[in-house]
Design brief:
About 40% of the residues lie in helices and about 25% in strands. By secondary structure, the protein is of the alpha/beta class. It has two domains: about 100 residues, Beta-Lactamase (2-Layer Sandwich); about 200 residues, 3-Layer(aba) Sandwich (Rossmann fold).
Length: about 375
């Protein structure tokens, strides 16, 4: 069997089983992650060093191979006709080549399919500002962003410009038009591409990842000057997201950044994918929508007071904390108590929301 047919068979089987990721590494048969759990594809043989290199190099362009050899890892995306698109991280480990393939659905899901409320989609109606989608790796950030961008293209005559590394979902021109730029292919880096974007007449800009101070500062400037900017960060809560942005800058710049952020921040969505009772996963999310009081607290560096404002007046604001989301999902029978505690940022508070003594769930918190 040829190498290209072999890797195609692996990916086809992974998609058939609903896998989110495929792992190729020496000393193990290919493994897939389904509903958060990794399991082997026993019908395929154990991967050898020679096999792993051939399998991964088969799908890589020459420039990606060069980057892998020089830097020890590389990100790229590719498509397999009839199967789908994949985002890949190829890397060296113990002197051998390994790779993780993230499956990207061919169809961009509607926001309601993802469990996103209308209040989050309301952010797509803004004419300017900074919207951040955050969470750990594998929390569905890219899919949430894709659903929001697709909604904009469907409903508004806007020019949407994305800057990604690599390009994941492929958007189509609809009521709006879209241009997608890939780092390494269409632009040298995020900051250069984002600065150039300001001269490319966009209404909406999506930055795949806000990695450094220069990119964050340019994104803030873009949001200030009449653009709706979407970006992602690997943070676990809305408040830690604000802290992360400010802390990227030297102390003498942080007050200025807080002021900019207080005016430009339109919303922060922090999300996790939690195992669902009966199979699959369900979205748990925290939503921060800055009001006048929260903007003042950001300027005054009193973020510890923001959380209390997120908890109150939610019928008007639409805001929600992660614990409130987890408690709601548990009460609806969608997730187990164990998983509610496992994904909770504060199990003591979660116990109060559930109306149970903390002692009743303390053993679960200790196991996390």
């Amino acid at each position: 069997m040829s190498v290209d047919v072999y890797i195609t068979n692996i990916l086809e089987e992974a998609v058939k089983q609903g896998a989110s990721d495929v792992h190729i590494t020496v000393g193990s048969p290919p493994r897939i992650r389904v509903d958060g759990q990794i399991k082997p594809l026993e019908q395929f043989p154990v991967v050898t060093p020679d096999m792993s290199k051939k399998l991964i190099f088969e799908i890589m362009r020459e420039r990606y191979r060069k980057t892998l050899e020089e830097e020890g890892q590389v990100d790229f995306s590719f498509g397999v006709p009839g199967i789908g698109r994949f985002r890949v991280n190829a890397f060296y480990q113990r002197g051998t080549v390994a790779g993780v393939f993230r499956s990207l659905p061919a169809r961009i899901p509607h926001y309601k399919e993802l469990g996103l409320p209308d209040r989050i989609i309301d952010l797509c109606h803004k004419s300017m500002g900074l919207v951040l989608v955050t969470g750990p790796t594998g929390s569905g950030k890219s899919t949430t962003l894709a659903a929001m961008i697709d909604y904009i293209l469907e409903n508004f005559p806007h020019h949407v410009l994305t800057i990604e590394d690599p390009i994941e979902y492929l958007f189509k021109h609809k009521k709006g038009i879209v241009n997608q730029r890939e780092i390494g292919t269409d632009a040298a880096n995020f900051n250069d591409a984002l600065r150039a974007a300001l001269r490319e007449d966009p209404d909406v800009i999506m930055v795949g990842e806000m990695r450094d101070a220069e990119t964050i500062e340019t994104a803030l400037r873009a949001a200030e000057t009449g653009h709706l900017v979407f970006g992602t960060l690997h943070t676990n809560t809305a408040i830690s997201t604000i802290n992360r942005i400010v802390d990227v800058f030297p102390p003498e710049r942080q007050e200025q950044i807080r002021i900019q952020l207080s005016f430009t921040l339109a919303g922060v969505i922090s999300q996790r994918l939690v195992p669902k009772v009966g199979g699959g996963r369900v979205l748990a999310y925290e939503l921060l929508i800055p009001n006048k009081a929260i903007r003042n607290l950001i300027r005054e560096n009193k973020l510890q007071q923001v959380y209390a404002l997120m908890q109150s007046g939610q019928a008007q604001t639409g805001m929600q904390t992660m614990n409130q989301s987890l408690a709601k999902l548990y009460k609806e029978g969608l997730i187990t108590l164990e998983d509610a505690v496992r994904y909770s940022p504060d199990p003591v508070e979660l116990a109060k929301l559930l109306g149970v003594p903390y002692s009743q769930i303390a053993h679960l918190a200790e196991e996390v």
